[in-house]
Design goal:
With 503 residues, this protein is mainly alpha-helical. It is 64% helix and 5% strand. It has a five-stranded mixed beta sheet.
Length: 503
């Protein structure tokens, strides 16, 4: 009996090991088969995660702390109307807010995780687009991901433009799906779903979706069924609803379409920014071209170019976002640059290749790696070139609305206010400090956002409070010097950060 029992046990263990070995072999085989697709996610994820790890518990990115964190807290507390939610590009919050409510994890920590995930997802979608829609080999498609993962403009998008990243990912996946003309098949329905979600993810990407749909409709040689045409109208209708919610006064200070004056110099400024952003790789872009697939990019390029042109018109909605259209061009331009580099590399491998081709073949990826490494790991302006358009591109990824070196002091200032603010107190903050106050002060503390104006500009809103505080840098330090809180005295300091009291 013992021998039989031992034999059965040995047979069972042997079978178990065989199954484990077979399972492991399948996993290894799958990884080998999809290694480029996996790397297309892991490389940008890792590059984007590096500054998050260096920053520790503190956020990076302006919009991250100034908008995403406060909006998450407001939506979780039910303090935002339906129109306000719709006007805030709700798709990202549709999964962030439930996660926050279920886990009560700090929204700062949530967005530190989301940032690398979104960048990895965006680059993976570009890889799939290059492979499936442009017909590139997996190596050529991954080369585009390499450029996207390391070029400073795409890294700037990944710095804090989370909603744009999410929208672009969905938009690119929609472009990748090839629908059958004249019918609403499975692929057409999938494409429509991607486009609808892209509209909900970001307003500017919504414009790309609408432009693409209009161009496809105008260029189509077949009328198509009524159902198919109505499906094309769905993203346009949804975009109209999002625009209405964004501009509706009840959503907050609002974005003005009219008012102000013409700004003809905006074209010159945004054109200069375009040259600055892509000048270093312009030769590669010209060599790479657009792979004979210009129809895939035409709407993208036309919409972004139109956005730059209309940045001269009166109204905040036109003028303040002109440079963002340049940022959205980074994906098609970097794909073209990657293909230009591949063409040069092919020529460098020829028997009659010139020495300068070999220098370029080695120098381009080396320059990308070095610049991305410095941009992601050094707090101060690691490369002087990164400081030429500070209003559009941060000099380092290790920044939020304040320098990383001041982050700990800002937290200490908020903790001091949490324990030391008397009853009948109010805190006025510049937009740079508003998200910090919302994240680190309890909900019973009243905070007023002065946006990009001086905290002193909101004093008329504090007549019902006995004590009025603000947080700013000590005299002679920090950013936004014209907004210094005049009329306030220092209550306490933490490094270069001070808590000021008006009364």
């Amino acid at each position: 009996m013992k021998e039989n029992s031992t034999s059965v046990d040995s047979s069972g263990l042997s079978l178990l090991f065989q199954r484990l070995d077979a399972g492991l072999s399948r996993i290894v085989s799958t990884i080998r088969k999809y290694k480029f697709a996996l790397a297309a996610f892991l490389l940008p994820f890792t590059v984007r995660a590096i500054p998050e790890v260096i920053a520790g518990p503190y956020p990076i990115g302006w919009d991250t702390i100034a908008f995403y964190v406060p909006n998450t807290l407001d939506m979780a507390a039910g303090k935002m109307s339906v129109l306000g939610i719709m006007g805030s590009a709700p798709l990202m919050y549709a999964f962030v807010v439930p996660i926050y409510l279920l886990t009560k994890i700090s929204p700062i920590l949530l967005f530190k995780v989301i940032g690398p995930l979104l960048f990895g997802g965006l680059c993976w979608s570009v890889f799939r687009f290059c492979e499936k829609r442009l017909g590139l080999s997996v190596r050529s498609a991954f080369l585009s991901v390499l450029f996207l993962s390391l070029y400073f403009v795409s890294l700037r998008v990944a710095w804090d433009a989370y909603q744009a990243e999410l929208g672009l990912t969905l938009f690119i996946l929609g472009l990748t799906v090839a629908g059958e003309p004249g019918s609403v098949g499975r692929s057409t329905t999938t494409k429509l779903a991607f486009f609808l979600f892209a509209v909900l993810a970001n307003q500017l990407v919504g414009v790309l979706v609408v432009g693409t749909v209009i161009l496809e409709t105008l260029s189509s040689r077949r009328v198509g069924s009524l159902r198919h045409n109505l499906s094309r109208l769905a993203p346009i209708a949804l975009f109209g609803a999002v625009v209405y919610a964004t501009l509706h006064p009840s959503t907050g200070p609002g974005v003005s379409v009219l008012g102000g004056s013409f700004a003809p110099l905006n074209i010159a400024y945004n054109t200069a920014f375009l040259v600055y952003a892509f000048g270093p790789i312009l030769p590669l872009v010209l060599i790479g071209g657009f792979l004979g697939a210009r129809s895939l990019y035409s709407a993208w390029i036309v919409v972004c170019a139109t956005g730059v042109l209309i940045s001269t018109l009166p109204g905040q909605v036109f003028q303040d976002i002109g440079y963002r259209w340049v940022l959205l061009l980074s994906i098609p331009i970097l794909i073209a640059a990657a293909q230009g580099y591949q063409k040069l590399s092919a020529r460098a491998a020829g028997l009659d290749s010139k020495q300068w081709l070999h220098v370029l073949q080695l120098g381009v990826p080396l320059a990308l790696v070095i610049s991305a490494g410095m941009y992601s790991t050094i707090e101060v302006a690691s490369v002087p070139y990164f400081s030429l358009f500070l209003g559009n591109v941060p000099s380092s990824l290790l920044q939020s609305s304040v320098p990383l070196s001041d982050s700990a002091y800002v937290v200490q200032a908020m903790q001091w206010l949490e324990t030391s603010m008397p009853s009948s107190s109010v805190l006025i903050t510049h937009e740079a400090f508003y998200g910090w106050a919302r994240a680190y002060l309890s909900s019973d503390k009243t905070t007023i956002n002065s946006l990009l104006n001086s905290p002193s500009s909101q004093l008329d809103m504090t007549t019902g409070y006995r004590h009025v505080f603000t947080v700013w840098w000590v005299p002679g330090s920090g950013w936004f010097s014209p907004t210094f809180p005049n009329g306030a005295s220092i209550a306490t300091t933490f490094g270069d950060i001070a808590v000021y009291e008006y009364r």
